[in-house]
Design brief:
- Two copies of one chain form a homodimer.
- The first copy, chain A, has 419 residues and is of the alpha/beta class.
- Helix content of chain A is 43%, strand content 15%.
- Chain A has two domains: 91 residues, Nonspecific Lipid-transfer Protein, Chain A (2-Layer Sandwich), CATH 3.30.1050.10; 286 residues, Vaccinia Virus protein VP39 (Rossmann fold, 3-Layer(aba) Sandwich), CATH 3.40.50.
- In chain A, helix 1 packs parallel to helix 2, helix 2 runs antiparallel to helix 3 and helix 12 packs across helix 14.
- The radius of gyration of chain A is 24 Å and the shape is elongated.
- The interface between A and B is large, with 53 and 53 residues.
Chain lengths: 419, 419
Amino acid sequence: MATARPAPDRSLTDVPVLEKLDGLLLRQLAARMGAAPLRYALGRLTVDPPAGPPVATLRFQDRRALLGLLLDPEVRFGDAYAEGRIEVEGDLVAALEQAYRTLPEGRANPLAWLRTFRRHSPPRSRANVHHHYDLGNDFYTLWLDEQLLYTCAYFESPEQSLEQAQVAKMDHVCRKLGLQPGETVVEAGCGWGALALHMARAYGVRVRAYNLSREQVAWARDRSRREGLADRVEFVLDDYRAIRDRCDVFVSVGMLEHVGRRSYRELGRVISRSLDPERGRGLLHFIGRDRARPLNAWIRRRIFPGAYAPALAEVERRVLWPERLVTVDVENLRPHYALTLRHWRERYERAAAEGRVGRDERFRRTWRLYLAGSEASFRTGSLQLFQVLFAPTRSSGVPWTRRELYAPGPGLSWNAPTS
Amino acid sequence: MATARPAPDRSLTDVPVLEKLDGLLLRQLAARMGAAPLRYALGRLTVDPPAGPPVATLRFQDRRALLGLLLDPEVRFGDAYAEGRIEVEGDLVAALEQAYRTLPEGRANPLAWLRTFRRHSPPRSRANVHHHYDLGNDFYTLWLDEQLLYTCAYFESPEQSLEQAQVAKMDHVCRKLGLQPGETVVEAGCGWGALALHMARAYGVRVRAYNLSREQVAWARDRSRREGLADRVEFVLDDYRAIRDRCDVFVSVGMLEHVGRRSYRELGRVISRSLDPERGRGLLHFIGRDRARPLNAWIRRRIFPGAYAPALAEVERRVLWPERLVTVDVENLRPHYALTLRHWRERYERAAAEGRVGRDERFRRTWRLYLAGSEASFRTGSLQLFQVLFAPTRSSGVPWTRRELYAPGPGLSWNAPTS
């Protein structure tokens, strides 16, 4: 009785029939990726792109990683990359950019759609914020600018440093809003407080700034005391829904992504009841899209639970229109976020190479992929960055032109008569 | 047998009981107008505003005009004014502005809503256009600028002349689009052709410009021949739906108001199939609102049949998003349209005073009210003017900043890399 059995010292992947299967899967993946100039590799097998040299190689450490990618590319790619079961040899951003450009954005998973309508109760919002923003200020200090701005910068020219561009962003926002000394500002979602402090220091306004992250608020209060601004800036550890202030200016930079679509109407109500109907104006700065789509599933699962990047139409329709807040100006800063992310990633990689990003390898690779993938998303147009400037429809003064934004001085003038 | 009958030579309005009724109606009107500083008068009766001096007096020539205003203010006021049965003594624009500010914008008539979804077939569009734009070029020459631009101007400063501001508007549009010599432009709804000719002359582009108005196209072709631009600008007497060109730039100034909401998706498809996916960009300039509302009923009936001023959200949602065209920049020029209309009205009144506006008194009063009412609408925020700049989401070059728009040179650069 002769039964053919593999020699006990040969691993499964060495069996030719499985190698055939691997080849099949690799070619299947290559077919899905169409013209993307990527090479795919597993063991000693490689599949080259249909034309031209590859910008990078996707190397699979095992068949499971390859299979996973074919079954559920969004989540499985991220997890397999984080676990080191997929390696990208070559330029990670360029590889992701090619993938994003090539892959048809299929229909979104209906469950993912449903989830975007999930209610963001204050406790859930707090949990979501805690997941991301309370990773420890030390961690963010490694790769953000010195003032810890964790939102898109504004590079007056691409050569500016990240530090300069973050200050330029704050000034761009303040000058769009035409802040006048003595005015009152409410900021919803203030991060580590840089903008609130900048507004008080450089524009002479009084600010109440809201944030759900305990670590960030502690940091911001400490800084505000050190800089002698505590009498003009109040940091409130609370939800934006708790805002009851009356103000001249409402500003929110990088919070809308976490508000949840079901709460857009409520955000609009909060803005509307805060703003002075005659002199009031506001600005929303947020990651958006060209149309409604759930955010990448892996990002939602591993990085930003509950996050959603809205289409401009959704913000117009749900936040502003029901409250008769009218858009005065919209600027799309997409290329600026790509460049901001490149700066962050370079600093992050430097810190990682120097062993300063603690935690385990999986964490380090997760954040590498998140930063690289975000940069690729802004480069390809999967994500956009909108700044929307608005005012109550019947308010009196609308800026005459935007010229003052690009000239010395305090920026737009909101006090001119309407004609 | 003594029956009390009024003496046959006394008219009805002299009968005290009817005078009592008139007083009742006048007070009813005054109550509806709340705090608006207006005086109401019929015969020898007057009702003063609750506080302060009136900015104007609404004088009713007969009871029917007053009753009509109470029953159906939008349409009846316009018609009664046109027929001279209501006279506004004092500043007409200020009076209308006060009325717009005071009157709660009630729920829109459901029928009016339905009508905004009416299909704009090409023949209907042609009829609508004919109603307004084929009143005779001579008529428009009386009160538009010398190049006959019948859309919102852009006043670099409020002191500019209308002529200067219309040239500045054309340059503002061209510079937002960053026109480069040799590029191809499609213009949908070109009026008397001023923008198309300006683009070809000052920016060296080739233009195909579409319009449904026979009189306007004849005028534009004639001008183009006289100015030696006929080889670079082609005026096409056709509907925007007939556009089959491929182009670098799609521009439409003041046409969207006439497209009809049901055709927004189709307009989006036309834009999308026209634009080069890599280099393409476009601009829509249109009268809009802070939220969806049918246009004033009298304007729809007497001035612009089929017209609709959309909310920004509607244009985003129906024209741009389905085609993955993403907004790069939005500017609200509301105060500029108020000032444009003031210039038009002053010229119009001068021409009317000199007996140069032919036709009958009803026509002259209709147009006076239309121009004054439009100015008041832009002053109060009932109407807005949006310029929306957009590009295919995946196009390569997005302008880095808007600074170039406010500096010498050709305007925004669309060829820079995304980061």
